[in-house]
Amino acid sequence: MAVSKRVGLLVTCLVDLVRPSVGFAAARLLEDAGCAVAVPSQTCCGQPAFNAGDRRTARRIAEQVIAVFEPFDYVVVPSGSCAGQVRLHYPEIFQGDPAWQPRADAVADKTFELTQFLVDVCGVTGVASRFSGRATYHDSCSSLRELGVRLQPRKLLASVEGLDLIELADTDVCCGFGGTFCVKYPEISDRMVGKKATAVTATGADLLLAGDLGCLLNIAGKLSRDGSGVTVRHVAEVLAGAVDAPAIGTAPPAVPTPTEAKP
Amino acid sequence: MSARDQVLGAIRRALAVTGEEPSRRKIVADRLADHPCGVIPARGQLLPAARLALFQKRVELVAGTVARVATAEDVPAAVAAYLRADGLPPAVRRGADPRLGAMPWEREPSLAVAVGASAGDDLVGVSHAVAAVAETGTLVLLSGPDNPTTLNFLPDHHLVVVDAATVAGDLETVLSRLRDTWGQGGGPGGLPRNVHLITGPSRTADIEQTLILGAHGPRRLHVILVGEP
Amino acid sequence: MTRAATSDTFADNARHALADPALQGALAFVETNFPARRRAVVDALPEFEALRDSARDIKAHTLAHLDLYLEAWEARVTEQGGQVHYAPTAADANRIVLDICRAAGARTVSKGKSMVGEEIGINEHLEQHGIVPVETDLGEYIIQIRGEMPSHIIMPAVHLNRHQVAADFRRVHADLPKDRDLDSAAALLNEARATLRRTFLSADVGITGANFLVAETGSSVIVTNEGNGDLTCTLPRVHIVLASIEKLVPTLEDMAQLVRVLARSATAQEMSVYTTITTGPRRAADPDGPHEYHVVIVDNGRSAMLAGEFRDMLRCIRCGACLNHCPVYHAVGGHAYGFVYPGPMGAVLTPSLIGVDRAGALPEASTFCGRCEEVCPVRIPLPRLMRFWRDRAFAQHLPSPVSRAALAAWGFLAARPWLYRGVTGLGTRLLARLGRVRGRFAWLPLAGGFTATRDLAAPQGATFQQQWRQRAASGPERPRPRTVPSGNPHGRGSEPLVAEPRAAPAPAADRPSGRPRPVAVGEPERPRGPEARP
């Protein structure tokens, strides 16, 4: 194997806090692709502050991310939204800053969304996991439009044995998550995610996948409230064959839960 | 300070310029003098026969109709045929265009041909286009005594005669010809009051996005294309 | 002054809109109809993306030299016998138009569709002074008789269905037979056509907008489909053009480039029915056309936009594609935005015109999904410009104290990794414990809006970073068992779930060939996907 790529996994705050299994799945996929994966101490990419107009906080957090991740060959993110923040918006935040702009640009250039990195940088053409079922895939707006990620996850999913991928209608339409948008304008957000949930159900798929946990939490929340039987997972979990954690927003099987595993 | 100075001054302050910079003035003067073309779609760049075919197809795609005749002498008969086919009374109004005037209207003795602008009570107007654009099926008409603007809009049926030799592939070719004819600052002092680019009959989709022809202008647009390429 | 706005109550407006079934039915049309039709017409022109670049460059070039193009254009208008009037503000524009109408002894004014006319409230101003303005674009006519603002910049009455329009026609056209049939859009159009034909023929002054002003020729250009704009500028004795300063383009060729992207983006047409280039009043020998041609060139805040980060917005050619593709617009329609410019373009433009203190909710009401920018024919970075407004709103302390406090708390934590680790580690474990029975919450404090209609997934347990460090500490880094982390509280048992090494992918026989590497892994014997659902 060639000299392995040293990858810093920017796991994203949502994955860190809500769904660590996505982080492990991402790490596994990267390792399988021959990368040496490290998880430097991290918090958030700063997108909430940036999108709220709080440039100072956004900048402070961005400086921290840049400093922590610049030693790596690549920065890989299991989220189009956070990858887009680093790739597109960090250079914008530091534009014209002689000290920071080159550093922001350098980190931006080596930052990739997970499936984009696997396919475009590592040349992965398939995975060896199996999953029997019919799935549909939701493109997050940031992946699709900021990063141009569309074919990469589909290419990888096509190699999952037993997986039948059904395309969603209006796949370029937002699910209504939008970070703080879904809390600030919950009724509008709900109308948007309602349409998305309807589209998901209309595919007849029993599993919804996406590359962004924000969208997934939003759509899963709607599907679950509506009593839909569609389960929801991050695409990395299926690609890595790491589907033993309960699907998003579901509980483990009704056996007595063992005491929380602690070291 | 005049309102003019106020607006121009605000623009100049915003742009951080004085308006006297020779380099800026040259850029603007050059652009106005050279009027560079942008992106010209390949679609209209065809040999004459194919260009006419494209023109006809595009007119029909926008709900216009096309009749082809060999020479200008055949136009009155084509007009009469259109009226008969639509069950319209044999009366039209046209402008003073000498090309229309030279046509043998007397060969259609039952056809009443009025000349001049419309006051709104004509069912059929006949105009002569100065050019046409194959790319989009667009007719180009100029206002003036030859082809009064009211004839383009008030009658329910607008019949437009187009000389096949004037059908261009793209809009820029027509605009450039107009400039050559009407001058850019010189000559008769610029463009006529109106240059009408007409692509199909009038329409609206303002109610429930239902497309209906004949909103305020003609309900039908009929092109009589004269001559071979 | 600029027309009155209700943008400051956007959230309430939106709530009402969401609960209005007639409006929702109308919006469904926009959502399904326009994007597909635009896609088809764009796909039919291979040069479309290059034309968008060209259009963007033309507008950017013109804006950078706007003072000089304006002077060149003005000189040409004057040479052709037209008159140019500069209006620094909306009030100036209204006063100028009224003065021209009075000088012409006007009682009735026919109007072509003009967004800047809507912006400055010219109809209200004329009415206040005893002059009757009559909108002649069908959609504008409908909203005028309803006393509404346009809900869309291209299709002003898109929020209405034909039954609503029929009721308005029966109310306003009281002299017509009561039992007439108004069930179809065609019947409604015929009635409007007959009514408005009388207006065209009797109006003293015609007011139109302009899609472009051409510096080279001193022309104004209108792009329409109905023909009302041409009748408006041809039949009355006086033609007034209302145009804002950013409508300038250098040459006819530049206009041609913009026309190609405008119609396709606006109505999915290759070319609008009527593109009319108007230069000066009627000439001596002309048998028709107006005797006077005035252009009122309106600034009303635009020169200020030219100076800063909002200059890009002045490229806008008012096609409405951003509205047609906006999921927020699809949900709430145009009136919720509370001003004449709705949707993404309105979210950027309206704060410039009425202040971010009153319109700050509009740039907030976006998920930054970017679909607007993706279709903008002049490539305006609309999400970025909305974000600039959020920057300003934040700097002016406009967001609510609660949202500021929440953001500040998060920002404080996120900038202090050690503190973040402690707090989030505790928080996620607590939430995981609270939510472990169902794996989700039906209600959470501070997320009440979200959980009113959606469940919120519970965290899995310890944070990823905690688990990752535990894993690193508990064994050699590599080779590592294929495992789900032992810290996973939902793991079935406390043993790490170690997968058997997966059988190597079978060769060519039953698997696609050409896989470059031995790929991992999974746990084939475990229940997967749907079957694994609790």
Report on this model:
Chain A has 2 domains: 5-120, Rossmann fold (3-Layer(aba) Sandwich); 125-239, Rossmann fold (3-Layer(aba) Sandwich). Chain A is α/β, with parallel strands linked by helices and 263 residues long. Chain A has helices at residues 13-17, 20-32, 47-51, 55-69, 80-93, 101-109, 114-121, 141-146, 151-158, 181-184, 186-202, 213-225, 235-239; strands spanning 5-9, 35-38, 74-77, 111-113, 130-138, 161-166, 207-210, 231-234. Chain A is built from 13 helices and 8 strands. Chain A is 46% helix and 15% strand. Chain C contains 24 helices and 14 strands. Chain C is an alpha/beta fold and 534 residues long. Chain C has helices at 10-18, 21-43, 48-64, 66-79, 90-103, 115-120, 122-128, 138-146, 162-172, 185-202, 228-234, 252-267, 302-307, 321-324, 327-332, 343-354, 356-359, 361-364, 371-375, 382-395, 401-414, 417-434, 448-451, 464-474; strands at 83-87, 108-111, 132-135, 205-208, 212-214, 219-224, 238-244, 248-249, 274-278, 292-298, 440-441, 456-457, 483-484, 497-498. Classes of the chains: A alpha/beta (263), B alpha/beta (229), C alpha/beta (534). Chains in contact: A-C, B-C. β9 of chain B pairs antiparallel with β9 of chain C.
* Broad CATH class of the largest domain in chain A: Alpha Beta
Return the CATH topology of the largest domain in chain C: Rossmann fold
Computed Rg of chain A: 18 Å
Structural class of chain C: alpha/beta
The whole-angstrom Rg of chain C is 30 Å
Widest beta sheet: strand line-up of chain A: 2-1-3-4
Which shape of chain C, going by the Cα principal axes?
globular
Quick overview:
By secondary structure, chain A is α/β, with parallel strands linked by helices.
Write the layout of secondary structure elements.
The complex is a heterotrimer of chains A (263), B (229) and C (534).
Chain A: E1 5-9, H1 13-17, H2 20-32, E2 35-38, H3 47-51, H4 55-69, E3 74-77, H5 80-93, H6 101-109, E4 111-113, H7 114-121, E5 130-138, H8 141-146, H9 151-158, E6 161-166, H10 181-184, H11 186-202, E7 207-210, H12 213-225, E8 231-234, H13 235-239
Helix pairs in contact in A: 5-6, 7-9, 11-12
Chain B: H1 3-15, H2 22-34, H3 48-61, E1 65-69, H4 75-85, E2 91-94, H5 98-101, E3 112-115, E4 124-128, E5 131-133, E6 138-142, H6 149-153, E7 157-163, E8 167-168, H7 171-182, E9 194-198, E10 203-204, E11 212-213, E12 220-226
Chain C: H1 10-18, H2 21-43, H3 48-64, H4 66-79, E1 83-87, H5 90-103, E2 108-111, H6 115-120, H7 122-128, E3 132-135, H8 138-146, H9 162-172, H10 185-202, E4 205-208, E5 212-214, E6 219-224, H11 228-234, E7 238-244, E8 248-249, H12 252-267, E9 274-278, E10 292-298, H13 302-307, H14 321-324, H15 327-332, H16 343-354, H17 356-359, H18 361-364, H19 371-375, H20 382-395, H21 401-414, H22 417-434, E11 440-441, H23 448-451, E12 456-457, H24 464-474, E13 483-484, E14 497-498
Parallel strand pairs in C: 1-10, 2-3, 2-4, 4-7, 5-8, 7-10
Antiparallel strand pairs in C: 5-6, 6-9, 11-12, 13-14
Helix pairs in contact in C: 2-12, 3-12, 9-10, 16-20
Pfam family, one (chain C): Fer4_8
Protein name (chain C): Lactate utilization protein B
Region (Disordered) (chain C): 457-534
